[in-house]
Write a structure and sequence with these properties.
- Strands 1, 2, 3, 4, 5, 6, 7, 8, 9 and 10 form a ten-stranded mixed beta sheet that branches.
- The longest helix is centred in the first third of the chain and has 53 residues.
- Helices cover 25% and strands 20% of the residues.
- It has two helices and ten strands.
- It has a domain of 161 residues.
- α1 packs antiparallel against α2.
Length: 314
């Protein structure tokens, strides 16, 4: 600490002691003066009573004393207040800020509030844009290389194919083969495998001229707005509420000892052909289907009549 700072502190302490002594002396002087005033007040009151008694007035002793005391007390009180009011002391320095208090103990968790009321139902939002239809269906239009005008979309055009009509092995279901095949790995030469043949019409010239031995076209079609598909045999119309995708003749493999079973298909009534393909290769065969009376009721069915068909969607 610097010497100048110490000297300043000592000087301030001396001044404070001098002020305290002066105040003590002043208080003693005031006390003496108050005692003198009190004695004077007592003497004045007594003298006033005697003078009044001598004059023989009507005023009672009690009233006289009360009046004199009241006047003298007011004067004395004012004098005493002035005497008791000491000199103003020296203004002290501002105190320092106190230290932060110790953090209080964390209180207990309050009880859970009651469940609020349910808000009002909001307004219904705007209707969003119509989305793409989900689902849909795919079918094959046999005997044609395009899709009908029923809202169906062409997936691809192709050629009908299947197993050779005399082979016991192979698949019984006919296929619509695309015109741009893709291959993966292959081995040279025949591997004694199953075989895929093109399909030909058989015995169809009586219904559609120039179709016998002609190759059979096909088209794979997609309908996005309908989800049910069914081929109805022996009918060329669809039930009410259903869409007729196309209609035609029911066809399959020939029923002889040298032919093997295949699937029944609905071939378009136009029996479209592949141009320049009329040649007897005898691969997979498309033959008409006739009714046989006996186990099949006749009527309504008729012997040797070619059966029709319809492809229906909904």
């Amino acid at each position: 600490m610097a010497v100048s700072t110490v000297l300043v502190g000592v000087s301030s302490l001396i001044q404070l002691q001098i002020q305290v002594m002066e105040q003590h002396y002043h208080n003693q002087e005031q006390t003496k003066h108050i005692e003198q005033l009190t004695n004077k007040l007592s003497h004045t009151t007594t003298r006033s009573y005697k003078d009044d008694h001598k004059t023989g007035g009507n005023t009672s002793h009690h009233e006289i004393v009360k009046r004199e005391q009241s006047q003298t007390t007011v004067q004395s009180d004012n004098t005493i207040v002035k005497l008791l009011h000491g000199r103003d002391g020296v203004q002290g320095k501002d105190g320092r800020d106190g230290r932060d208090g110790v953090p209080g103990v964390k209180g207990d968790q309050g009880p859970q509030g009651s469940k609020g009321d349910r808000g009002d139902k909001g307004d219904q939002g705007l209707t969003g844009p119509k989305g793409e239809p989900a689902g849909g269906l795919v079918y094959v239009r046999w005997g044609h290389d395009s899709c009908p005008s029923t809202g169906a979309q062409l997936v691809y055009s192709g050629r009908a194919g299947g197993s050779e009509h005399r082979h016991k092995g192979g698949g019984s279901n006919l296929q619509c083969l695309p015109l741009d095949p893709n291959y993966l790995r292959s081995q040279p030469g025949s591997q004694d495998s199953a075989f895929m043949y093109g399909a030909e019409y058989q015995g169809t010239n009586g219904l559609v001229p120039n179709t016998h031995n002609a190759k059979v076209p096909c088209a794979v079609c997609y309908v996005s707005t309908r989800t049910a598909l069914y081929m109805i045999p022996a009918k060329y119309t669809c039930p009410t509420g259903w869409t007729t995708e196309y209609y035609g003749y029911l066809m399959t493999e020939r029923s002889t000892n040298v032919h093997y079973r295949s699937q029944f298909l609905c071939v378009d009534s136009t029996m479209g052909t592949v141009i320049g393909s009329i040649y007897d290769h005898n691969g997979a065969l498309f033959s008409l289907v006739e009714g046989r009376c006996g186990s099949l009721p006749c009527p309504p069915y008729e012997q040797t009549r070619e059966l029709t068909c319809a492809v229906c969607t909904k």
